[in-house]
Each structure stands twice: as C-alpha cells, then as structure tokens.
Design goal:
This protein has 503 residues and is α/β, with parallel strands linked by helices. It contains 16 helices and 24 strands. The structure holds nicotinamide-adenine-dinucleotide. The site of nicotinamide-adenine-dinucleotide has 30 residues, from α8 and α9.
Length: 503
Amino acid sequence: MQQTIERPGGAAVRIPAGRLLIDGQWRDAIGSGRIAVVDPATEQQIAEIAAATAADVDLAVQAAHRTFESTLWQKMRPLDRGRLLEKLALLIERDAEELARLETLDNGKPYFVSKNVDMRFTVDALRYYGGWSSKMAGEYLTLSPFFDDGGTYRAYTERRPVGVVGGITPWNFPLGQAIQKIAPAIAFGCTVVLKPSEEASLTTLRLGELILEAGIPDGAINIVTGYGHEAGQALVDHSLVRKIAFTGSTVTGQKILAASAVQMKRVTLELGGKSPTIVLADADLDKAIPGAANAIFPNSGQVCTAGSRLFIEASIFDEVSKGVAAIADELKLGSGFDTETQLGPLISARQMERVSGLVASGMEEGAEPLSGGAREDRSGYFYRPTVLTGGRANMRISREEVFGPVVLAMPIHDVRQIKTLANDTVYGLGASIWTKDLNKAHLLASQIDAGTVWINTHNILDTAVPFGGAKLSGIGREFGSEAINAYTETRAVCMRLEAPEFG
Ligand code: NAD
C-alpha cells in the first residue's frame, strides 16, 4: 500500500509500495518476510518493504533471462536501447524533486544533496550510457599464419553482452548506485535483476515505476528488495546470472568473489576504502583546509572514497588540523528537510554503533579529538563530525574503514615517506594531493596505489572517468568506456578466404 508522509518545511513524501518488480509486474514476495524502513533522522519506522527469498529471485532471473533471449531484445537497435535510457533520464528529471525528497527521507542526507548530487549523477549516467549504446565496436585483425595453404586468414572481434546481470547496491547513494548498474547493462544489451540495500530501497522502488512508464520491455530490469544473505546470495548463486555488479563492503565483496568462482561469473566489485588526503606545506591552505574537510564530511562520511586519513606536512600540521576541526565544529546537523542542515544522520543504529565503537577504540589507543568524538544527544543517528590527532599507523582507527564523519590527522615528517604512509593500507580506492607545485603533484600521484588520485580537489566523480579500486577496494572499473569490458564478452571470429582470381 502506498502512503504519504509529511516532513518539516511542508515536504510531503509519497512512499512507493514495498513490492517486487518482476517481468514488468508489481508482485508480492512469495514468503511473508517484511523489512522495516526506518527514518534515520527520527529512528521511527515509516514503511515496510518485501524481503525476497530465493524463490522470488529465481522468478526475477528467469524473467530477465527470457527477455535477454527474446527476439525483441536481441534485435532491438542499439540506438533504441539508448533511447529507453534517455526516456528514463527525462522521467527522473521530471520527478527529481519528488525522488530527492524520498531519498532524503530514506537515507537522511540533506535534500539539496539528494537533488543536486544524487539526482544529477543519476540523470548524467543514464545519458552518458544512452550515448554509448550505439558505440560498441570490435577490431579487424590481419593474421600471420604459420603455414601457407593458399588461403588468406582474417579475423574480427565483436562485443557481446554477458547476459543477465545481478546488480547489488549499498545505501549511501541508493538511486545513483542502482543506475550505475542499470545504465551500462542496458546500454550494452544485458538485462538486469537489481537488489538494492535493505537499508534504503525506496528510490529504487520508485525507479521501478518510472521503468514501466518509460516503456522498457518487461523483464529487462527487475527489482527485488531483500536481505543480502538471502536475496543477494540467491542472485550470486543463480546459474542464469552471468555477471555480478556489486558495490558494498569489502567483506561482502570477498564472499561474492568466492561464490562467483563456482560458475566463473564475471564480477565487478566496488568496495571499501581508507583514502589519504595529503596536504603539502606549499598548498594553498585557503583551499586545502576546506578541501580536506570536504573530503571527509559530506554524506556524513558515508562515502567510499572519503579522505579518512589526513596526512599533513609537519610544519603546517597545527594550522591544517585545527582548521579542519573548526569547520567540523561549525557544521550543522539535522533533518535533511531543514534547509539549514549541512549533515544528515548516519544510516542506521548499526552504523552508529560501528562509528562510535571505532572512535572509542581510537581514543583508548591514544588518539585525541580536536572536534566531535560523540553522537549528538537527541533522537536520530546523528554523529558529530570528528577530527582525531595522535593516531599511529597500527591503530584500528587508522586501518579500518569507519564510513562515518571521522578523520584521523597525522603529520608527515619526511616527504620521502609519503608513498609509504599513503600506501600503508589494505585499501586502494582514492587519494588527494594538495600542493601548488604540479611537479610534485604528478610525480606523487604516480606513487599512490589507488584507483583515483585527485589533485587539489577530492571526490570529483564523473561518469566519463573510470572508477574503481586497487587492492581490497575492488576489482574492475565502472564508468567511462571501461564499462564496456565489464558488461560484455569479446568474441573473435576467424576466417579463411580463398579466391585465386582476387589473390
Ligand atoms: P554491505 O556489503 O553490507 O551491503 C551491500 C549490499 O550487499 C547490500 O545490498 C546487501 O544486502 C548485499 N549483501 C550483503 N551480504 C550479501 C551476500 N552474502 N551476498 C550478496 N549480497 C549481499 O555494504 P553497505 O553497508 O550497504 O555499504 C557500505 C560499504 O559499501 C562501505 O564499505 C563502502 O565503502 C562501500 N561502498 C563502496 C563504493 C565504491 O564504489 N567502491 C561505493 C559506495 C559504498
């Protein structure tokens, strides 16, 4: 049943029914399992969604497989797949304010972020991959046979869609992550079963309504809500799913990689991070100090590339760390519907426990807070933006991903050690370097083991730029032209030609 919820500032948010989208139809899950939807700003339950079981996932995968094999889908012109994505982009633009309100309700992030970051990214990704749909190309190859049998050997390659894609997404950018899987999959001719995070599924369900309105063929995009260990695992284990496109934690990514090995499924894994922000003594501190704060605090630190280890040259350590702490102290926490709010709540009680526990362990091991260090004394999962100093590389807080608004500031005593300090982590997702000297910036960038290195900025993501992680931050790249490799297989066609009159 759909319902509407009122929020401060007169915002009325329509909540989609918690059903499953399978083969172009909304249906109830086969079992009776339901998952409570909790508003993280109030800790109140606001709705329920279906907890799909393996049987529901099977129906969704079968539908995606049928559509993938259908003449309609196989013969659809690439330009027309692109047009479907463009239609979806137009519908999301039309309903951007409604979708942004729903994202803010479900995830907690400020409305201006939902509207100006999440919705814009979503529309951009649809347009970007809509354009790619007609640009799949292979290669023509001349061969050098070992023998001369009078024939001429030639080959070409073509890119074939992998088949049914299982998309599994986290809760920090729910709609954006859903589109990040759906857009390249459809552009390159795959069909999809998407399982959003059980912590934030509402905008993905609303997306399902727009998918139907856009006239996307039944079964091409299916949405099953549910728990990871049940619905997610069933998707990973299903023999008709040829590829898993996963974004989430490293621990889950490792389980998915192990399970995918059995059927040799293709995987892309976008996982956790512990990204360094590196501020050199010659940086423009008027930009670097807010830049370092901006690297960690937006989305309440729940960003995979958040700059959670802040390395500062010793001569400017006090100025930069205190500057970042002063910004943290000023940030206004509150309901995402309050126009003054700069930071929303953490997503859940579980995330609050994790963030509080890691900060407490850091303090027990000798770290000291320059700002924050505790949750706010009110309902809602609000955690004060926190700057810690006095950390050492072997502490849990320096090594584990917090996924909260918490940064550990550490001095650099010898710039020749930066490579070692920055790379002293199991992760390799992002990094930023702040300096006025581009010689240093570029040479240092090439020493950092990370999928993305930013110079004098942080967290600039663009669908045109390949994104992904090194080491335990993942496998493969999404975005940009690299997504072609992620969603297609190469087929080589090799031929022998012989016609004496033509040589
Ligand atoms: P999570 O791993 O707990 O869950 C992610 C998704 O996986 C959810 O949909 C969940 O239901 C599902 N899942 C859980 N167990 C599963 C299993 N056994 N089989 C299949 N699916 C399963 O992660 P989260 O807490 O939702 O998200 C936070 C994490 O995501 C952080 O570590 C963050 O760094 C990472 N993240 C990475 C990126 C990136 O692009 N690298 C982006 C955003 C978030």
